[in-house]
UniProtKB/TrEMBL annotation:
Keywords: Hydrolase. One of its GO terms (biological process) is UTP catabolic process. Belongs to the nucleoside triphosphate pyrophosphohydrolase family. The keyword Hydrolase applies. It catalyses: ATP + H2O = AMP + diphosphate + H(+). InterPro entries: MazG-like_dom, NTP-PPase_MazG-like_C, NTP-PPase_MazG-like_N, NTP_PyrPHydrolase_MazG. It comes from Pseudoprimorskyibacter insulae. It is an enzyme of class 3 (hydrolase). Residues 35-108, 173-230 form the NTP pyrophosphohydrolase MazG-like domain. The gene is mazG. GO terms for molecular function: ATP diphosphatase activity. Its EC number is 3.6.1.8. This is Nucleoside triphosphate pyrophosphohydrolase. The lineage of its organism: Bacteria, Pseudomonadati, Pseudomonadota, Alphaproteobacteria, Rhodobacterales.
Length: 266
């Protein structure tokens, strides 16, 4: 196995063996040995976001490494599951392969593939609904993972409810609800009530994104990138004056922010 570990063309078998060695109770890495599913899960989420970040920046050279980091997370979880007698990495690969084949009868079966993308999505949802029923998940919202990022889970919950008709028919009605929730937040006084109303407003904003066919995560990432870019312009302008943000007034920084906005639009 030493030759496999040092083989630059070893592919998946090499990675799986490296993970097994890292977790070896006698000769492995103390940090890796101490980990469990719960401690590794945050790293898995972080790596998924780093993949999304590389794609957002079109950093294709970085994407290869980020995808490798994410793949390693799957291998890590599979190794811990193998040690506990649950399943191994081959089981993981075979499970997703079986799922892809069963969910694409128009590619791997005898169904016609002369369907629109929308029809294929509907077929996909029908197959997933059947799978949920087989797992005794009978409620409309059953199976929407609790551990998803809250914004993403809000959209998924709303999509599920919309499939059975529990949805506003127009975007204007959602906008009216946004205004209503904003006013309720303005009127809230105690901390618990403020937090509740703020959550309601975020939930409705997620619904608005869904009605407008916007990915709210992508929209917020864009806003974050814009804020970072413009604040960097403020810092650069202040540095050119021999100053720093902490030495400046809000009025000075706001004027530089407006100048950065104009520069971007020109």
């Amino acid at each position: 196995m030493t030759d496999l570990i040092n083989d630059p063309t070893g592919g998946m078998p090499r990675l799986v063996e490296i993970m097994r060695r890292l977790r070896d109770p006698q000769t492995g890495c103390p940090w890796d040995i101490e980990q469990d599913f719960a401690t590794i899960a945050p790293y898995t989420i972080e790596e998924a976001y780093e993949v999304a970040d590389a794609i957002e920046r079109e950093a294709w050279d970085e994407l290869k490494g980020e995808l490798g980091d994410l793949l390693f997370q799957s291998v890590f979880h599979a190794q811990m599951a193998d040690e506990a007698g649950h399943f191994n990495f081959d089981d993981v690969a075979n499970a997703i392969a079986d799922k892809m084949v069963s969910r694409h009868p128009h590619v791997f079966g005898d169904e016609s593939n002369a369907k629109s993308a929308e029809q294929q999505v509907q077929d996909w949802e029908a197959v997933k609904a059947a799978e949920r029923a087989a797992r005794k998940e009978t409620g409309v919202l059953d199976g929407v993972a609790v551990g998803l990022p809250a914004l993403l889970r809000a959209v998924k919950l709303q999509n599920r409810a919309a499939r059975v008709g529990f949805d506003w028919p127009s975007t204007d009605q959602v906008l009216d609800k946004v205004i209503e929730e904003a006013n309720e937040l303005r009127e809230a006084t105690d901390p618990a009530h403020i937090e509740e109303e703020f959550g309601d407003l975020l939930f409705v904003m997620a619904n608005l994104a869904r009605h407008m066919k916007i990915d709210p995560e992508a929209a917020l990432r864009g806003a974050n990138a814009k804020f970072t870019r413009r604040f960097a312009a403020i810092e650069a302008a202040l540095a050119a004056r021999g100053s720093r943000p902490e030495d400046s007034t809000l009025e000075e920084m706001d004027a530089l922010w407006d100048a950065a906005k104009l520069t971007e639009k020109s």
